[in-house]
Amino acid sequence: MAARPKGYGMTAELANKRAGKFSVELAQEAMDWIKAVLHDDGKDDAALGTVSNPKDVQTALKTGVVLCHLINAIKPGSVAKISDNKMAFKQMENIGNFLSACEALGIKKLDLFQTVDLYEAENIPQVINGIFALGRKARTVGYNGPSLGPEEATTN
């Protein structure tokens, strides 16, 4: 049973369901926002190009470096050490540091993604949702740069 291929049964059905949730428009909007925030912070990343499929998002963000620079642009000092190392565990550490910094800003864990969702392209739509959650939260933590998505609701 452990050697069952990924393309059969319930695993295939769930993968197809996740793939059906991917929106090129939302992904492109998120990537454009990331570019704008990094540009405002004095960093430009050529890897952030046009999005036509989930693989484009994974390729651009997989190392976690862009995400760490993004969170540092919104709240300086959120991620102290960003590794440019090409080793898998260092890249996953960057993604984990980004997610921890997002939680420290007050983003709910349910709105974020898991490292494997991005690194192994398991759930790219959830990665986009996490970026939108950061875009909403950025306004409430004092970031005055480009905005993404609707304004976060406040309690009465």
Give a description of the structure:
With 156 residues, the chain is mainly α. The protein is globular, with a radius of gyration of 16 Å. It is built from 7 helices and no strands. The chain starts with 8 loop residues before the first helix and ends in a 16-residue tail after the last helix. Helix 2 (24-40) crosses helix 4, helix 2 (24-40) packs across helix 7 (124-140) and helix 4 runs parallel beside helix 5. It has helices at residues 9-20, 24-40, 54-61, 65-74, 88-105, 115-119, 124-140.
**Mean pLDDT across residues:** 87
Low-confidence stretches: none
Strand content: under 5%
Number of strands: 0
Distance from N terminus to C terminus (CA atoms, Å) equals 52 Å
Rg over alpha carbons: 16 Å
Count every helix, treating DSSP H or I runs of 4 or more residues as helices: 7
What characteristic shape results from the CA principal axes? globular
Give the structural class.
mainly alpha
Provide a brief overview of the structure.
With 156 residues, the protein is an all-alpha fold.
Question: Which structural traits does this protein have?
Answer:
single chain; 156 residues; globular; 7 helices; mainly alpha
SSE blueprint:
Elements: H1 9-20, H2 24-40, H3 54-61, H4 65-74, H5 88-105, H6 115-119, H7 124-140
Helix pairs in contact: 2-4, 2-7, 4-5
